[in-house]
Sequence to fold (96 residues):
Amino acid sequence: MSAGLARAYAIAGRRDSAQRALHELKLRAANRYISPYGLAQVYAALGEKSAALNMLHRAATEHAFELMFLKVDRSFDSLHRDQDFQKLLKQIGFPE
Fold:
């Protein structure tokens, strides 16, 4: 839920609030599991494509269940044309 709130801040243009929430998520990740998929959604909403892709690759490595939604998740619309994103879809096993 915290990732959802951070993403909502980013979408609403409240970049500082989104970055603060993201920072808090990263701190919590030291003691408990925080899905890299959720972090990727926040980074994508902030327009940080490289960081979003890095988190998606980490999610794939960790076999995060949320990846089953990757191809249709509107959070990543800005990444769909990126070659690295397309390679990731193939790597995960999505048909073209």
Notes: The longest helix spans residues 15-28. The CA atoms of residues 35 and 64 lie 7 Å apart. The chain has a mean pLDDT of 94. The radius of gyration is 13 Å.
